[in-house]
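Let's practice the habit of predicting before peeking. Look at the sequence and jot down your guess about where helices and strands might fall. Then scroll down.
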Amino acid sequence: AVPGSTVELGCSARGDPAPQVQWHKEHGDLPWGRHEVDREHTLRLYAVTPADAGAYVCTAQSQLGTAAATTVLHV
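Done guessing? Here is the structure:
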């Protein structure tokens, strides 16, 4: 990603019952005041900086189990 740009990271999770979906950064916190997660579980990072680079994990959890996927952001 280019510094200062907006990045979208998608996460698709379906099930019955519908799973709870959460995003976190593997080593650190999501950028304070510069991120949001929409209803489709897409994580948006605004005005990215080199400090935002790293692995981001999407975790889907329901009473039937847990699944996780990781993506790496390079800035």
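How did you do? The chain has a mean pLDDT of 94.
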